[in-house]
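help with this.
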Amino acid sequence: MLYLASQSPRRRQLLEQVGLRFSVLDVDVPELRRAGEPPEDYVSRVAREKAGAGFLAVAAVERAVVLGADTEVVLDGDIFGKPADAADALAMLRRLSGRTHQVISSVWAVSAGREEHVTQISEVTLAPLDEATIARYIATGEPFGKAGAYGIQGHAAAFIAHLSGSHSSVMGLPLHETTRLLSHFGIVG
């Protein structure tokens, strides 16, 4: 039985897109970067902690496999998480405007006898954005709840000048890598 340790509607949508059946677990894992922790290590650790917390809730379920994931936007070594408010979203989008940044997604699968993970790093270039465009975008409400204050699957798709990597990973779950990972657990044929 597959469980997703995430409340993200995008992750649920992506798993459904490839025909996977799963149940959702609500886990509460602090997303705090440790001093000096490299971005890739941070993203992997948080994803692992989500999967581990989810597995503790279903450990008694025979053949339970829990998927935990984290996705962060990184520019100049800084991690752009979910914006706290409109001012935070504005600051993020100003910095990302006209620049190439990384989107790091890490996925962990945890079962009673096995743990494995994959990490996918995509590079995304946003077109230059003027203040009015950023303000209109923030007014849609779409930046909130999304790393880097944008959603590639929404209005911000028009801002993506170039993508090298995985579109689904930028949304929050690299599908190719995730299905390969789940095949090691007998979830995907």
Q: What stands out?
A: The first strand starts at residue 2 and ends at 4. The two ends are 14 Å apart (CA to CA). The beta strands are 2-4, 23-24, 65-75, 78-80, 100-110, 115-126, 160-164.
